Amino acid sequence: MIEFDVKLADQRKPAGEREALLADPGFGQLFTEHMVTIEWTKGEGWHDARLRPYGPLALDPATKVFHYAQELFEGLKAYRQPDGSIVSFRPYANAARFNISCDRMAMPRLPEETFVQALELLVDADRDWVPTREGHSLYLRPFIIATETGMGVNAPSARYLFCVIASPSAAYFSGAIKPVSVWLSTEYTRAAPGGTGFAKCGGNYAAAFVAQQQAVEEGCDQVVWLDAAEHRWVEEMGGMNLFFVYGSGAEARLVTPPLTGTLLPGITRDSLLKLAPDLGIPVSEEKISVEQWRDDVASGALTEAFACGTAAVITPVGRVKGASGEFVIGGGAMGATTARLREELVGIQYGDKPDPHAWITKLA
What we know:
The protein has 364 residues and is an alpha+beta fold. The protein is 25% helix and 29% strand. Helix 3 (91-104) packs across helix 4 (112-125). This is Branched-chain-amino-acid aminotransferase.
């Protein structure tokens, strides 16, 4: 554990103004009054851990993160429970994935206990910003950036800044839960073997914007990424993992693409691999091609599809479009298996259902 210097904001928003903002916070647009920072320098390690008022970072124009994109981030949520306490869902899993990403980006690991300690400190300071409305949460964004000044590219940075900020948020997709439409990207590639596909670094997302713009131009909500070699095998939807439902009712089973180093190992994905069997739904990790997806929908074998991730939780996929045509899944409506999994997962996160795997960690 590391000792933090705590400096609280001199002025806090009045309760009435804060509640008005929390009534419709959007997603990632509103930020709380504090942040956590910890510095790392070569030879000294992690030091100068602080909780301080939220505000701008002062960085030299030659700071390495601006020029060589040595940075990465995580995303998780804090949830208000029925008893008023505040918890997070599997924060140690996020801490472990953070360090795996750090290894890939040649950045220093942060002890998992320190990662969670930083979340606890920030959430406790800004507990009044954790929404109480159904489906709302406090989105937590830990990130790390290279802060050494200089243009040299022969070695990774000798200085880093770890930071955590928090954003009260409504649902990722606004309005009632409805299936999204997706565009199959054959022109662009998200990741290739040996690359950074499994790491949660910003460059993966920056490179995805052009394909997402193309999806919107084609009348779709999101882009689906295919493999880099053949542009045939389904990998991810945007920044979320994909699941396919075969059969229905008691015969339903789940299939999801295997982790190959090009897909992000999602915490929600991993949770569903454990949760679905608890509900009597078999799960397997199998490669699925675009052709198989289309043909299995046409035959009725594949009945539902959904994407999952921290921000969107579980979002059904209703329409698939590509250069060769389009098809609709399950009549374009959310399927019963998707709805059941979402209800169970959200119920655990908000404290309305049992937590058999001890995934919930109290933060405040």
